[in-house]
Design brief:
Layout lengths: L1 H5 L3 H5 L17 H6 L4 H8 L5 E3 L12 H11 L8 E5 L13 E2 L5 H6 L3 E5 L6 H14 L4 E10 L3 E6 L3 E16 L11 E2 L18 E6 L4 E4 L5 E17 L4 H13 L2 H4 L15 H23 L5 H7 L25 E3 L7 E3 L2 E5 L4 E5 L3 H9 L6 H6 L9 H13 L3 E3 L8
Antiparallel strand pairs: 1-10, 2-3, 2-4, 4-5, 5-11, 6-8, 6-11, 7-9, 7-10, 7-11, 12-16, 13-14, 14-15
Helix pairs in contact: 8-11
Length: 443
C-alpha cells in the first residue's frame, strides 16, 4: 500500500482546474472552537493545554471535510495568483523531518511549480492561505473571537510528499495542525523549551546558542501519526518535527501573541501627556559624562519612575482602567491579511423585521458609567443604562424585532426609545446585529 501511495500524482490532484462550481459556502455556527477541540471541552483546552502543553486529539475522518479539501486548495491556489501582498507566499523544502537540522533550506516558489515540486518529493507551505480562502478567513476570525485572543491568528497550509517534512524546530507561536487528507508522522515535546520565545529556532545538535531554552534531550517527547480528522496543538516553543507518510494535506491554525506592553502603552501615554515633567523629557545639563550618568539626570529619571510606580499601584487597585485597552486589543490587531467587513448602512425596516445577534460578536464590559463593546472595526461606548438590554440581547437565542427590544426597557426617563434605537443602529452598522430573512425568522 505504501508503494502505491508514493506514486500519487499531485498534478492530477492540483492541476485539473477548479470544478464547474465552487463548493457551497459553509455557514458559521458560533461553535467553531467547540467543534475544533471536541471531545476536549473549550474550558479544558484553554485552562490546561493552549500555550501550556501539547495536545493530540484523535478525530473522525470527516471532521474537517467542510473546512478544507483538495478542491478548496485548488481554488485557493487559483485566487492566490492574484494576491500581491507578500504576507501570502509559497515555499518548498526537501527536508525529511530530521531529528537535527537539515542542510536543505526552504526556498520560495511560484504557483505553477507547486505540483512538480510535490511530485519531486517536496513539502510545500502556503503561508497565510486564508488570504486566498474567504471562508478560512472568517472561520479563523470566529476562533479568535471565541478565544478572546488579542494577537494575530492565521492559517497556513502544508502539503507533503511521502517522507518529506521539516526537521526539529520550534515556533514562536501556538501551532495547531488539522489533518485534512493523508497521514503525517509527528515527533514533539510535551512541554515547550521556553514559553513564548521571541524567535523560531531550528535544532542543530552541537550548534545551539544559549537562549533557546531546554534542548530536546531535556524534554519528554511523544510520537503520533495524524490521520484525517486528527488535531495536534503545540504550544509556542515546543520542539517538533514531521514527515508525510504516503502524502499529507494539513492546515496549521496559528496564534501569534501581542506583547502586553501594547495594552499598557495607552496608560503610559495618557499619564505622560498630562505631566509636564514627562512631556519635557530629561533635563539639559552641562555636566561631563565621564564614567557615570550626570546626577541631575539620574535623579530626574528616578523621580519619574517613582511617579509611574504610583500610577501602576493605583491601577492594580482599579484594574478596570485597562479594560478599554484590552478590548481594543481584541479588535485592533486582526490576523494577517484580514480586513473587517464594511459598516452596514442603516436599513429601512418594518415593525415585523426580525434581527439576531451575530455569532461571537456581542462582548461588553462595564467601566464606570459606560459600557464598552468591541466590534470588528471599532470599539463602541454606550451609557451604563444600556447594559441590561445588552445582557438580554446576549442571552437571546432566537430572533427578535426592534419593538420587542424596546419593550424590554420600561423607563423612558433613563433611556428613551430614540436612544435605544440609536444604539441598536450602531450595533447593526458594526455587524453585531444582523437582519434575518423572513423564512428563517424565529428558527
Amino acid at each position: 500500500m505504501k508503494e502505491i501511495m508514493k506514486k500519487i500524482d499531485f498534478h492530477a490532484l492540483l492541476d485539473a482546474g477548479p470544478a464547474a462550481g465552487a463548493p457551497a459556502p459553509v455557514a458559521l455556527t458560533g461553535r467553531e472552537l467547540e467543534s475544533l477541540v471536541s471531545p476536549v471541552s473549550c474550558d479544558e483546552f484553554v485552562d490546561s493545554h493552549f500555550a501550556r502543553a501539547s495536545l493530540y486529539v484523535p478525530g473522525q475522518p470527516r471532521k474537517f471535510e467542510t473546512l478544507f479539501s483538495w478542491e478548496k486548495l485548488r481554488l485557493a491556489l487559483a485566487r492566490g495568483q492574484q494576491i500581491k501582498d507578500r504576507r501570502y507566499n509559497i515555499t518548498a523544502s526537501f527536508a525529511g523531518g530530521e531529528e537535527t537540522g537539515s542542510s536543505r533550506p526552504m526556498m520560495e516558489v511560484q504557483h505553477h511549480q507547486v505540483s512538480e515540486l510535490l511530485n519531486a518529493g517536496a513539502t510545500i507551505c502556503i503561508t497565510n492561505i486564508h488570504m486566498a480562502d474567504p471562508f478560512l478567513a472568517r472561520w479563523a476570525q470566529e476562533i479568535r473571537a471565541q478565544l478572546n485572543f488579542n494577537g494575530t491568528v492565521g492559517v497556513n497550509c502544508y502539503v507533503s510528499a511521502d517522507g518529506s517534512g521539516l526537521p526539529t524546530h520550534y515556533d514562536k507561536r501556538v501551532a495547531t495542525t488539522l489533518q485534512i487528507a493523508g497521514t503525517k508522522r509527528w515527533r514533539f515535546s510535551i512541554k515547550p523549551a521556553m514559553a513564548w520565545p521571541d524567535t523560531n529556532e531550528v535544532y542543530e545538535e552541537g550548534r545551539m546558542g544559549e537562549h533557546v531554552g531546554k534542548l530536546p534531550a531535556e524534554l519528554e517527547f511523544r510520537e503520533v501519526e495524524l490521520s484525517p480528522g486528527d488535531m495536534l496543538c503545540l504550544p509556542a516553543g515546543a520542539w517538533h518535527s514531521a514527515r508525510g507518510v504516503g502524502f499529507s494535506l494539513a492546515l496549521n491554525l496559528y496564534f501569534q501573541p501581542q506583547n502586553l506592553l501594547n495594552q499598557l502603552m495607552p496608560l503610559l501615554q495618557s499619564f505622560s501627556a498630562a505631566n509636564e515633567n514627562w512631556r519635557g523629557g530629561t533635563p539639559a545639563t552641562t555636566g561631563k559624562i565621564k564614567g557615570a550618568m550626570p546626577a541631575t539626570v539620574a535623579a530626574y529619571l528616578r523621580e519619574r519612575l517613582d511617579e509611574f510606580h504610583k500610577v501602576a499601584l493605583e491601577t492594580i487597585s482599579s484594574p478596570d482602567a485597562l479594560a478599554e485597552p484590552w478590548l481594543n486589543s481584541l479588535t485592533k490587531n486582526p490576523y494577517t491579511g484580514w480586513q473587517p467587513e464594511a459598516m452596514s448602512p442603516i436599513p429601512g425596516v418594518t415593525r415585523d423585521q426580525q434581527f439576531r445577534v451575530a455569532m461571537s460578536s456581542l462582548r461588553f464590559v462595564q467601566v464606570d458609567e459606560k459600557v464598552i463593546v468591541p466590534c470588528e472595526n471599532a470599539v463602541l461606548k454606550f451609557p451604563a443604562a444600556f447594559l441590561p438590554l445588552l445582557q438580554r440581547l446576549a442571552a437571546c437565542s432566537t430572533s427578535f424585532t426592534i419593538p420587542e427590544v424596546l419593550s424590554w426597557h420600561q423607563d423612558p426617563e433613563v433611556l428613551s426609545p430614540t436612544n435605544i434605537t440609536t444604539y441598536l443602529q450602531a450595533l447593526y452598522m458594526h455587524g453585531v446585529l444582523k437582519m434575518v430573512p423572513s423564512q428563517a425568522a424565529k428558527a
